[in-house]
Amino acid sequence: MLQKTACFLVIGNEILSGRTQDANTRVLAQALNAQGIRLMEVRVIPDIEDRIVRTVRECSAAFDLVFTSGGIGPTHDDITAECVATAMGAPLVRHEESFRLLEAALGADRFNAARQRMAYLPEGSTPILNTVSVAPGFSIGNVHVMAGVPSIFASMVAWLVPQLEKGAPLVSASWHAAGLKEGDFAADLATLQKTFPTVDLGSYPYHLPDGASGVALVAKGYDGDLVGKAALALHDLIMAHGREPLAGEAAHKQPA
Amino acid sequence: MLQKTACFLVIGNEILSGRTQDANTRVLAQALNAQGIRLMEVRVIPDIEDRIVRTVRECSAAFDLVFTSGGIGPTHDDITAECVATAMGAPLVRHEESFRLLEAALGADRFNAARQRMAYLPEGSTPILNTVSVAPGFSIGNVHVMAGVPSIFASMVAWLVPQLEKGAPLVSASWHAAGLKEGDFAADLATLQKTFPTVDLGSYPYHLPDGASGVALVAKGYDGDLVGKAALALHDLIMAHGREPLAGEAAHKQPA
InterPro entries under this entry (chains A, B) (predicted)? Predict the structure, then answer.
């Protein structure tokens, strides 16, 4: 099974302005991990037509899968559907089933021209179910377009991602060591990385609210057997530095 | 005064894996806003040499300023300094002042080969002060390289950004309207955007924990006078839809 790569495009000005903090990347990354798809890049770009079209084209060619969030609501700055249509060379057309669903949910009087725009998808798209507020996302080619509002985004990811073709699943194992600092064992970890070239070894310092600190050591890869062996070696590395290796994630739930 | 553009490169696997949520973008974006520098793109990329070198080159050419976070610690996967050196065509050399500072702070016995790597900067760099853990960031050309740990990143931003040449400051004004939905006024907002082409008008739905919801309407731009006029028009737009325009940010502190 081949490893699949993905890119996530966060479209909109609110994260670039510092107004809101992105919460969608983590939701998508975790869902993709479970499906064996590796998130290789995230790009946050503004609501500028030319920038969206160019980035969608570039990323659609460079990665197996592209996911987007934002810009599919009813307002004038919601231009993602038009831009993806242009990028993929498909005209924007009324999607009859989505039109009927929206009309039924909103009632004919509230279903004004602005809201009707949300039923226009690039020709040949498959809608992505929105269980929160009806207006759909859509998939066209290898591009999957979703809403930016976190509750809606999460519902779309939960519906879409399990339907995607699986890649080889990423396996990870970790140990943490209270009181240890990265610089103490960096040379040993570098040596270990050479011993396990196909396993990704990482160290993550943490600082807890109570003042305690330490390092989490993580092994990740697509060969579960090798990841297990590398994790055992991380365990021994911590012991060799006179610390107690602790299992699980509890001690680094609040990384500083 | 010309508007300056910036790109932020978040380097490292922990955000792409869903392990941690990015908190640095917001800190940088707000500091840049205050300095009149506009954050135009964020890219999150993995610890892969070729990807880092290529992205730094591309973004250094495309934006006035580039900021990076992550990958300047002592471990084997901390390769940002080497990659930026390659991208900028400058060899990595020992920075004597940083070397002495680190040695004094850590003590000669703890200042091992792995930690000494943190004193190697691309030739011609200016160090960026680290008031948390001594190991510096650095500026070379238009690229500013900082740590990924949020407390250190924030201290570096606080030291660096006020020293950068100012651009035209971004001015913003907002009103919020409880109970209003984006689709209700989308057509009017689009018309208003045409009236104020140089002001960026946006609407941001919010959902509070107590179940209340509404929309914040925001005007942003580099001409304070025009932003003020646009904000007045937003106020009137809310009134025209039978709602009470409320000032300030209180009602959308917790956007869903």
Answer: CinA, FLAD1_M, MoaB/Mog-like_dom_sf, MoaB/Mog_dom
Nearest to B170 by CA among B1, B7, B27, B38: B38
- From chain A, the residues in CB contact with B182 under 8 A are 73-75
Residue in B198, B146, B204 with CA at minimum distance from that of residue B174: B204
Q: Which amino acid is at A10?
A: V
Nearest Cα to B80, choosing from B111, B120, B27? Answer: B120
Which chain A residues are Cβ-neighbours of B20 within 8 angstroms?
26, 204, 255
Q: Do B256 and A112 touch (CB under 8 A)?
A: no
Number of Cβ within 10 Å of residue B240's Cβ equals 10
Q: Is A168 on the interface with B (CB under 8 A)?
A: no
Cross-sheet strand order for the sheet of A126-128:
A126-128, A137-140, A143-146, A65-69, A4-11, A37-45, B37-45, B4-11, B65-69, B143-146, B137-140, B126-128
CB A82 within 8 A of CB A91: no
Please name every residue paired with A39 in a beta bridge, in sequence order, or none if there are none: A6
Cα A52 to chain centroid, rounded: 18
Report the alpha-carbon distance of residue B40 to residue A41 in Å, rounded: 17
| pLDDT tens sequence across A153-206 | 999 999 999 999 988 777 889 999 999 998 889 999 999 999 999 999 988 888
**Phi and psi angles of residue B224, each rounded to the nearest 5 degrees, phi first:** -60, -35
Calculate the alpha carbon distances from A59 to A162, A220, A242 in Å: 22, 25, 46
What are the pLDDT digits (tens) for B122-177? 999 999 999 998 999 999 999 999 999 999 999 999 999 999 998 877 788 999 99
Per the CB < 8 A criterion, the answer to whether B21 and B80 are in contact is no
User: Among A150, A87, A85, A79, which Cα is nearest to A124's?
Assistant: A85
What burial letters (b/e) apply to B184-207, b meaning 16+ CB within 10 Å? Answer: bbbbbbbebbeebeebbbbbbbbb
Paired tokens of B117: 């790597």
When CB atoms are compared, the residue of A17, A40, A112 closest to B16 is A40
Q: Is the reported ipTM for this assembly greater than 0.90?
A: no
Going by the DSSP 8-state scheme, the letter that residue A39 receives in this structure is: E
Question: Closest to B255 (Cβ–Cβ): which among A20, A183, A202?
Answer: A20
A75 touches chain B (CB under 8 A): yes
Shortest Cα–Cα distance, A73 to chain B (Å): 8
Distance CA B76, CA A203 (A): 10
Across the interface, which of B32, B42, B204 has its CB nearest the CB of A44?
Answer: B42
> Where do the domains of chain A lie, and which CATH numbers do they carry?
4-163 (3.40.980.10), 171-252 (3.30.70)
Q: Which two tokens stand for residue A202?
A: 């990482």
Which residues, 6+ apart, have CB-to-CB distance to B225 below 8 Å?
A: none
Q: How many CB atoms lie within 10 A of CB A144?
A: 25
